[in-house]
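Hey everyone, long-time lurker, first post.

I ran two proteins through the pipeline my lab uses and got sequence/structure pairs for each. Pasting them in order. The first:
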Amino acid sequence: MSGPLAAYPDDVPLPAAPPWRRPLGHRTQRPYLIEQDQVDVVNAAIRLRRPLLVTGRPGTGKSSLARAVAEDLNLGPVLTWPVNTRSTLVDALYRYDAIGRLREQQLEGYRERARDVGHYIRLGPLGTAIATQHCGRPRLLLIDEFDKSDVDLPNDLLVVLEEGEFEIPELSRLPDTEQQEGVEVGVAGSRERVPVRGGMVRCVEFPFVIITSNGEREFPPAFLRRCVRLELPYPSERQLAAIVRAHFTPEPGEDDHWPQVANLIRDFVNRRNLGDLATDQLLHAVHLMRHGVHTDSDHLREAVLRELGDGGPR
């Protein structure tokens, strides 16, 4: 075989993956670097228990901010609701597997092993954020790329975020005795089950909600009024240098190669001025450089540092 794959025969170990491309349980948490005025806005949203609406171009670290906040404040694993044009509020709150329940009812001997309706209900990311806590603290919910949502979804979301509760009609229709005793339902991201009484899911404390937007559309004034708003600009050349140093553990003598990294950062900024580039693309290029891959070749830089809006071949 010819070409780059021949560099890794069976008896040669594969190169190590970048720290951020390892499974969740094997990643090392790296500091999230933003300016102090941006930190102040995040803290204001936390104190006010209001959703934080984070806007900015792709690649400015909007989603990474949620993971950094959850880590710093011990809010548990981030609950994520990736939004698209087909997303509905009900899907984010809960799902009821009516077909699965019907199939089990038709099985022979079903009555002997019948399960209550709660086994067919699982809370979605928003429903889980309302119903659960982590070590006595509110959960963090990331609503990602909200500007891709249907036009009515922001207003639909307002009621739940304001009241901190919602109804599951399938449970509200149960006999009063079952409602009082409560029905246990599943949650997103774990095998935990939580009790629901009277068909209502209510929060003990409002979850911390971070909503990201690429700025592709305007949101209704009523929705914006209830959010604390944060604009994340592209990191400056100085900030990019700090981010690179924070993500890579220096090796002996590596400072001797820093001028090459500085040149790569400068080239990245120049390219970014001509089209959208994500900060992790710079980290990819630095990772390759640190492992002896010549990123100054045109074809490799085009592959690693191609503008986000350019999805096809040239």
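...and the second, right after it:
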Amino acid sequence: MKLDKTAASPDAAADGVGNPQAAKGAETVVDPRLLVREHGLAGYLTEFKRKVRGGDLGSIPVVLGLVIIWLIFQSLNSNFLSAGNLTDISIAMVGTGMIAVGIVFVLLLGEIDLSVGSVSGVAGAVFAVLAVTHGMNEWLALLLAIVSGAVAGALHGFCFARIGVPAFAVTLAGLLFWNGLMLQVLGDNGTINLDSEGVVGQLTRYYFSDVAAAYGLALAVTALFFVTSFLDNRRRQAAGVPSRPLSDTVVRTVLLAVVSFAVAIVYNQNKGLPLAVVIFLAALFLTDFVLRRTAYGRKVFALGGSVEASRRAGINVELIRISVFCIAGAFAALGGIFIASKIAAANQGAGSGDLLMNAIAAAVIGGTSLFGGRGRTWNALLGVLVIVSIQYGLALQGIAAPIQYMITGAVLLATVVIDAVTRKTQKSAGRA
């Protein structure tokens, strides 16, 4: 009779643990909702300590970084936190932020898209040629411009998912191809001015001057957050799984209300609520809902975690990959339209310079992992706020562009280092 040398000892079997030494150092994961419900404020502190030990810092570093950046630039120039400057920052961030939203989808797969800058330039050129040169209806021209970006992204996704070309290579080729196409579409003149009073021209110039608009949006955002959180907790209670207490939801709602109404006050001290910001927030809400509340979003996260496991679970890997690059192309086109609106023109410099790097940096700085499987589209908002705040703060100090590039690069490097260290910490804690 042979003895199974790999069998666990009776004591270990009784404990349900095959490796007692490893289990001794392991940390028992407790649902944070249970901690809060049973221990109140102490539960928050316990959960925070557990997250720090496990390397799950969330958006804490970028929020603290943003606060520090604002305090530094305000101390250097009292105009930095003025209503006018903050409004300008919020409008300037929309173009890059839209592109960053699409980048978040791609990064969730653990891939990269280097073509989004050129695709944004093509979209602006397509709109300008159709609406200005050929006199097409602006709404139709806008739709076709966005479709052009989605088609470009779908082509990249097809080459990546079906043919097997690495995403880096196919989007690098796309960067060159779409930039050349943009130059060809614009023609010899190289610049097409847009009607500042037209549909696209008003995207970054229109303000809801009535004070009720900004306050109404703040109230709507706060109410929507409370209702969705409350209903989600009710569903969890009905299913018999841990849920956050009502007091926790109320505290979170109050904090959001403070921030929302503070922003509304700032806008109303200037020209009112910018249309560009409303559209950007709507895009963030929609994409966050898709990623967190739909089967499609769960498939994107699953694919970013493990391609093989997703395939064995029955997920159509090729379709998800193609659709994600299609979404990235569509948001790149949207970003290009907003950038063209801000300068009231489509020119040969569109999509070039530091736009691509800023869009990728915004997603990464905001908290989206370069390794895939972790991130939210709201990360694009936080990241682009950091980048544009640095740009505007340095501009107020009269610091040249090369220094801006170096500082932005340093911030990006620091974020990537934090991401890598966090990932190693999570692995050692058994959470990755």
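Reply from user beta_strand_b:
Welcome! Quick read of the second one: The chain has 18 helices and four strands. The longest helix spans residues 211-239.
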